[in-house]
Amino acid sequence: MRVLNLVTTEDARFFEQQVARLADHGVTQTTLAVPGRREYDEDDSGRSPLDYARFYPRVLRASFDDYDLVHANFGLTAPHAVLQPNLPVVVSLWGTDLLGEYGWVSRRFARFADATVVMSPEMADALDADCRVIPHGVDLDVFRPRPRDEARAVVGWRPDAHHVLFPYPPGREVKNYPRAEGVVDAVRDRVDDPVVLHAVTGVPHRDMPTYMNAADALLVTSDREGSPNAVKEALACNLPVVATPVGDVPARLEGVSLSRACETDAELADALADALEGGRSDGREAAREVSVERTSRRLYDVYREVLDGA
Fold first, then answer.
1. CB atoms < 10 A from the CB of 189, how many?
2. Whose CB has fewer CB within 10 Å in the chain, the N or C terminal residue?
3. How would you classify residue 6: left for phi > 0, otherwise alpha for psi between -120 and 50, otherwise beta?
4. pLDDT of residue 131
5. Distance CA 175, CA 188 (A)
6. Which residues in the chain land under pLDDT 70?
7. Residue of 73, 147, 136 lying closest to 110 (CA atoms)
C-alpha cells in the first residue's frame, strides 16, 4: 500500500511514530508538509493562508503519482486532500484543528473524505459526522517506569522536593500555564516538601520518559484538547496525572490510582496534593489500550476499508 501523507508539521513526534508503525504493516509513505515557518502560533495554524494556497499545486501533482490513497493529517490539510480528483481520502483531526478557531475548515471538508479519524469521543461529538475514534498511540517500550531517584539525577532535579511536570510551552494560551501556577501555589502549604513546577518543552522526545519518571505528578490545565499524548505517556510511566476534563482525559484516567480529571481549581489542588504524597500510579495497564501497536493497526484497518470500498 502506498500512502501520500499531508501534514502541517512532519516532525510532530506522534506523526513520526505513526509513519514508523504503519511501515511495519507494509505501508510505503511519502510526506508533503505545508510550506512556511514550522513553529506553532497561538491558534496552532503556524502558517499564513498564502502558505496553504501554495501547498495545493504540490498535492495535485503528487495525486497523479502511483499512490493508493491520500491521508490528510490535521484539518487544515483536509481541503487539499479532498480537492484533488484522483485518490480516496482519509482525514485525521488532531484536536485544535477541530476544537479551535479553524474548526469550521475541518468540519466543512472532512465531510467529503472517504473516512475521518478523530482522537476522542468529544471530538466525534463536535464533528457531528461519521468518523472513527482512534487516538494517537504511546510507545510502551519507550515510555516505561524507571527509578525516580535515578531519573532525577539525570535531569538535575533536587531530591528533597516535589516536582510537578507541565509538558507544554508556558506561552501556549490554550494550555493555560497561569492556572497551573495557581494550582501549584495552592498546594505548597499543604505538603511537607517544597513543590517545584517545571514547564518542560523543547527537549528531545527521547528524553521525556526520563522527565516523567523524575516527576511526582503531571499537571494538565488545558482549556481544550483532543487526546493529549502527554497524559498517555505519563500513564505508561506510572506517573500520576491531574488534569482538566478535556478531550478523552476523563476516560483515560478512569480507575487509575492517584489520577483525576477535575473541573475546579480547588479540585485540581486537592488531587495534586494527594498525588504528590501518594507515590506512583498504576496507569501503565490503562495505557495498554492505546499502545502504538493497537492504534496503528486500527488506522491500517481504516486504510484497508477505504481501499476495499473504492
1. 8
2. C
3. beta
4. 95
5. 21
6. 37-46, 310
7. 73
Report the number of secondary-structure helices (H) and strands (E) in the chain. Answer: 14, 11
233 CB burial (10 A radius; 0-12, 13-18, 19+):
buried
Q: What is the pLDDT of residues 18-57, one digit of tens each?
A: 898 999 999 999 999 999 855 444 344 567 888 999 999 9
Q: What is the distance between the alpha carbons of residues 98 and 135, in angstroms, rounded to a whole number?
A: 14
Q: Which three cell numbers stand for residue 223?
A: 482549556
Which pLDDT does position 294 carry in this prediction?
A: 93
CA Rg, the chain, in Å? 20
Length of the chain: 310
C-alpha cell, 165: 511536570
Contact 213, 233 (CB under 8 A): no
Sheet strands (E) in 214-300: 217-220, 241-243, 260-261
Query: Angle at CA 112, nearest 5°, toward 108 and 116?
Result: 90
Mapping DSSP onto H, E and C, the string for 145-181 reads CCCHHHHHHHHCCCCCCEEEEECCCCCCHHHCHHHHH
- The rounded distance, in Å, linking the Cα atoms of 133 and 216 is 30
Instruction: Give 175: exposed, middle or buried? Use CB within 10 Å, 0-12, 13-18, 19+.
Output: buried
Which candidate, 87, 54, 50, places its Cα nearest to that of 72? Answer: 87
Give the DSSP letter of residue 303.
H
